[in-house]
Amino acid sequence: MASGSRNPLVVGRVIGDVLDPFESSIRLLITYGNRNVNNGCELKPSQVAKQPQVSIGGNDLRIFYTLVLVDPDAPSPSNPSFREYLHWLVTDIPSTAGASFGNEVVCYEKPRPNLGIHRYVFVLFRQQCQQVVFAPGWRQNFNTREFAELYDLELPVAAVFFNCQRETGSGGRTFR
């Protein structure tokens, strides 16, 4: 991953708002229909209504991963009082497989941004071992860093985010 301001996770403030700095070490491919998710791409709610396909690189079936999808801009980017809103949580995903082979702890909830342009962040962690993970009591105010610490997940091995706004919204996200 590029360092400094060229890193799209830094430019998009995913590093800082959701994650601490890390280096990607594995391929993570997220696909909605025929559209791959690339950092900062724009997707409409209708394009992300159905659970995406997730493909994880690697070649050791004894390694397992945890995938988290959060919205750090809920309910609105100017007032993210629900930061982070948990949209999906899947554990025990085998290397070389996808999320459909894991344990869905929190089912996929489609993005429904009402105000402004929201970032939706997929974060992939390598697990130390297969383990029981409990669903949080609510989706709002989830904290990816605290979750990783609680389950001894260390730094992420990959992350990617997309921007999404109401179907009728237009324009791109700007950063201060």
TrEMBL record:
CDD domains: PEBP_euk. InterPro entries: PEBP, PEBP-like_sf, PEBP_euk, Phosphatidylethanolamine-bd_CS. Pfam families: PBP (PF01161). Gene3D superfamilies: PEBP-like. Belongs to the phosphatidylethanolamine-binding protein family. This is Protein HEADING DATE 3A isoform X1.
